[in-house]
Automatic annotation (TrEMBL):
This is Short-chain dehydrogenase TIC 32, chloroplastic. It comes from Smittium mucronatum. It comes from the Eukaryota. InterPro entries: NAD(P)-bd_dom_sf, SDR_fam. One of its GO terms (molecular function) is oxidoreductase activity.
Length: 352
């Protein structure tokens, strides 16, 4: 029997097949996707047979069964771990046996969250390390601090992100959404890569979004402030997440390290907080009705991070807990390499 996620992905992938590459037909694709996502959200909200919590517990249980003989302590880093699906992901990874480094900006908030997690889980498996993905200095400091206290990294979940914000720049002068969502994680991942390579069967999970399907990697959209559009530039950053994951997967082929990206679903988090003033009340009501909750939104992240059946699976894109088709641009090896080179150039140019 096909899962609800498989059916949803099949419909989305079929529509993408006919629309991909045509800017006019992609509008049809996006409308179709929104309809499918809306129906999917409604159906999983009324699914009384298998609760999201039961599914998460199953992923955790299956992972622990396969790793029951392992005595090595395993370490995971989750960016943006003090709220949203990053928080739920951190809790579930700890329940699976990981020592979880919660990489986030706000120390007071993170330490308060850790106290609550320890009380809820009975585990002392959470550790805060400060990280601001909009600052190269902060990223370098985080990497140095992590390497001083840890010699391996078995799982990296690039989860943090911002969305739909007015034009702004990172502390290093780069457009904020691209700089935070893609470039910060690009620098962080490469800085930790030696420890990831030293860890057996390590995984890198990159949280993107289906909005990336409507984005494109165009340097001018990143460098030219006059071309900035908060919606489209968010889509650009999410496309770059998928392209980065695919290029990194190619570069790590044969190492045993897997790299996959995913769309967590239309999740009710605070990432979409930059809507017009005066609409806050109405938007909160709509979000509660139309969006999935944090547990539901963490399912795909936890599956890609833990599922033993995905051992060796790399360079793929997932949503609704199933593998999904990717837009053609994300599969274009030449463009993915161009993004990689451009990212390195920006970091070199803007580093002080």
């Amino acid at each position: 029997m096909y899962s609800l996620g498989y059916i949803a992905n099949y419909l989305i992938s079929s529509t993408l097949y006919y629309c991909d590459g045509n800017p006019y037909l992609m509008k049809v694709f996006l409308a179709t996707y929104l309809l499918i996502e809306f129906v999917y959200t409604l159906l999983i909200k009324i699914d009384v047979l298998t609760s999201p919590r039961t599914k998460l517990d199953q992923y955790i249980s299956e992972y622990k069964e396969v790793n029951t003989t392992s005595t090595e302590e395993k370490f995971a880093i989750v960016t943006g771990a003090n709220s949203g699906i990053g928080l739920e992901t951190s809790k579930d990874l700890a329940l699976a046996g990981f020592h979880v480094i919660m990489a986030c900006r706000n120390k007071a908030s993170a330490e308060d969250i850790i106290s609550k997690l320890e009380l809820e889980t009975g585990l002392k498996s959470f550790e805060f390390m400060q990280l601001d993905l909009a600052s190269f200095k902060s990223i370098d400091s985080f990497v140095d601090q992590y390497k001083k206290s840890h010699s391996k990294l078995h799982l990296l979940v690039n989860n943090a992100g911002i969305a739909l914000c007015p034009y702004g720049k990172t502390k290093d002068g780069i457009e904020m959404q691209f700089g935070t969502n893609h470039l910060g994680h690009f620098k962080l991942t490469n800085g930790l890569l030696d420890l990831i390579k030293a860890s057996e069967r390590a995984r890198i999970v990159v949280i993107s979004a289906l909005a990336g399907y409507s984005g494109t990697f165009d340097k001018s959209l990143i460098l030219d402030e006059s071309k900035y559009n908060n919606v489209f530039n968010y889509a650009v950053s999410k496309m770059c997440n998928i392209m980065f994951a695919n290029e990194l997967a190619r570069r790590l082929a044969g190492t045993g390290i897997t790299v996959n990206s995913l769309h967590p679903g239309a999740v009710n988090t605070n990432i979409f907080k930059n809507y017009p003033e005066g609409l806050a009340g109405m938007m909160e009501v709509l979000k509660s009705l139309l969006l999935i909750n944090l547990i539901e939104g963490s399912l795909t992240s936890i599956k890609v991070a833990l599922d033993p059946k995905l051992e060796g699976v790399t360079g793929k894109f997932f949503m609704h807990e199933e593998e999904a088709a990717q837009p053609s641009e994300a599969l274009d090896e030449k463009k993915c390499k161009e993004l990689w080179d451009f990212s390195e150039e920006l970091i070199k140019k803007h580093s002080t």
